[in-house]
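> forwarded from #structure-qc
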């Protein structure tokens, strides 16, 4: 792996969920001392961030920004991780749409999840963590992928009887992982960090 590839891997990008031009409401500093702030969700691992933005930049919800490493940031001046409950109500309501867009834009990556999902324990498979996927659907997916890997969400729906909206199922699972930090198994949220720690 070249150093350029390694550097590219270490750059974390996020999508802005909420932009607060006058700063955070719980920031006790006077208005003139507050910088524009907001919330963002990581593109690769769906980590949630509270961020402060450069005052000279005007952003909109859905803008892509670099959150890590600090040396690579151009618009973000400060950044730290937060939990779902810490998000503004605007960011919470935007989250589902942004996650759905990210799943759609990265279709190959998420279709590969259906192709590559493995057993977690003798009785539990990664596919069973997805909402609405029981034994019958799981076995249908496993049987079909043995014949030939899936190439799109559409193909998944066509080849696996009873599997409707495989992309929406993933969005639902990602949102569940974001909202409930006590889940035993995290399949999508924080994945990158888990892989780096192995």
């Amino acid at each position: 792996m070249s150093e350029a590839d390694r550097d590219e891997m270490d750059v974390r990008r996020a999508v802005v969920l909420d932009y607060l031009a006058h700063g955070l409401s719980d920031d006790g500093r006077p208005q003139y001392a507050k910088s524009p702030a907001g919330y963002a969700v990581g593109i690769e691992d769906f980590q949630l961030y509270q961020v402060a933005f450069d005052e000279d930049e005007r952003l909109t919800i859905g803008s892509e920004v670099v959150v890590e490493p600090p040396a690579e940031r151009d618009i973000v001046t400060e950044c730290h991780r937060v939990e779902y409950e810490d998000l503004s109500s605007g960011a919470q309501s935007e989250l589902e749409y942004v996650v759905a867009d990210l799943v759609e834009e990265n279709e190959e990556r998420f279709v590969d999840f259906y192709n590559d999902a493995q057993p977690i324990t003798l009785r539990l498979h990664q596919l069973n963590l997805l909402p609405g996927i029981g034994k019958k659907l799981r076995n249908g997916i496993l049987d079909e992928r043995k014949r030939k890997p899936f190439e799109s969400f559409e193909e998944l729906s066509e080849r696996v009887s009873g599997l409707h909206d495989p992309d929406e199922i993933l969005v639902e699972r990602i949102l569940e992982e974001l909202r409930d930090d006590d889940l035993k198994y995290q399949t999508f949220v924080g994945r990158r960090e888990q892989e780096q720690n192995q």
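QC bot note: Residues 1-7, 194-198 have pLDDT under 50 and may be disordered. The chain has two domains: 3-82, 91-196.
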